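Need a sequence for this fold. Nothing fancy.
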């Protein structure tokens, strides 16, 4: 916590706005909109997954439609496709960016256009706090008249080219403020869109789709998806330290990189002109060079009560999506096989990081 959250929460209690409506909720939406600095609209939602669910529905996704999506992503970034009865088609990553491979995507869109079988929407993921190639993706979406919804759940605080903020791409983008994100509202998300009518519909659907009437009138179904005013108050305190959190995560990343960059360990690349949050320090280990595997390092750290995690397991490899269409050469599969996320919380001390570095270095030394 930044130390300012309790002040905003106290104001929320004093105003007696406890439900998902109130001045703190409005102020939080305004704060995110002002931070993103674009001609956009923000709607605070109960989670990033709920925001994606709304975005897909507003984009017109329904039963039997295809949604093309990054395979290496968190489950909450794909389950809303299932909620709507649609079908995912998975895409590999570009090894030089760890973002969805736009060349493969372009080829498949051209094929789909020739057979009149275009997807209803494309959902690329800003992986581990780094923006996807927005220019290329927005150009493809416009060329084929396909809706683009950017999963920016992991990347608030990052920038794309020319300082454009992650979370401002496509027809809509979704943010997450879950407890593990770089800033948190305990649980929460944001629906971000350049379309006023999309924002209006998101608010309508997120509040049980209640029609304007003195009684409860419903012409369609909605959801209980609005963010609590109390959680929004926490978000107001968190927004004030977002850039500082990004700075600290990047410092942590750079210290890991300096310690291990020449020891058979490769770190997630950052394309020129982009500024990642380094939400997590993500790397890959080459056992042929290091003499140890990803699991050797992970289990050794765990013995010392230090948590690290494998990279996301690609969705096309999950039992739930066995046999689903996949396009690529398995870049994401290899990243998963050899990839690890090291401890990288913003409140991690130098001494704590030194212990992680020392223990991994000792393991590498003993293997060679």
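Here you go.
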């Amino acid at each position: 916590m930044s130390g300012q959250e309790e002040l905003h929460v106290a104001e929320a209690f004093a105003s007696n706005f406890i439900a998902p409506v109130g001045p703190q909720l409005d102020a939080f939406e305004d704060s995110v909109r002002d931070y993103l600095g674009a001609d956009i609209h923000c709607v605070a939602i109960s989670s990033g997954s709920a925001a994606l669910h709304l975005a897909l529905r507003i984009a017109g996704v329904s039963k039997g439609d295809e949604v093309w999506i990054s395979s290496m992503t968190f489950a909450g970034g794909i389950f809303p496709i299932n909620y709507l009865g649609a079908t995912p088609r998975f895409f590999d990553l570009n090894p030089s960016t760890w973002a969805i491979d736009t060349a493969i995507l372009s080829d498949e869109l051209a094929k789909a256009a020739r057979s009149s079988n275009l997807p209803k929407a494309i959902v690329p993921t800003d992986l581990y706090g780094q923006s996807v190639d927005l220019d290329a993706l927005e150009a493809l979406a416009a060329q084929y008249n396909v809706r683009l919804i950017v999963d920016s759940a992991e990347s608030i605080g990052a920038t794309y080219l020319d300082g454009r903020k992650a979370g401002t791409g496509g027809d809509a983008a979704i943010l997450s403020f879950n407890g593990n994100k770089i800033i948190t509202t305990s649980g929460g998300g944001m629906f971000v869109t350049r379309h006023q009518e999309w924002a209006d519909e998101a608010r309508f659907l997120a509040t049980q789709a209640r029609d304007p009437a003195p009684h409860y009138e419903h012409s369609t179904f909605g959801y209980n998806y609005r963010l609590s005013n109390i959680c929004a108050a926490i978000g107001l305190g968190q927004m004030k330290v977002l850039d500082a959190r990004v700075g600290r995560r990047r410092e942590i990343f750079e210290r890991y990189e300096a310690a291990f960059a020449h020891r058979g360990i490769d770190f997630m690349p950052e394309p020129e002109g982009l500024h990642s949050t380094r939400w997590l320090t993500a790397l890959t280990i080459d056992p042929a060079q290091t003499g140890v595997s990803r699991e050797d390092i992970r289990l050794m750290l765990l013995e010392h009560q230090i948590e690290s995690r494998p990279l996301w397991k690609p969705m096309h490899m999950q039992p739930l999506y066995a046999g689903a269409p996949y396009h690529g050469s398995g870049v994401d599969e290899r990243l998963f096989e050899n990839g690890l996320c090291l401890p990288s919380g913003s409140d991690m001390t130098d001494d704590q990081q030194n212990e992680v570095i020392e223990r991994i270095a000792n393991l590498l030394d003993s293997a060679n």
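For context: The chain has a mean pLDDT of 95.
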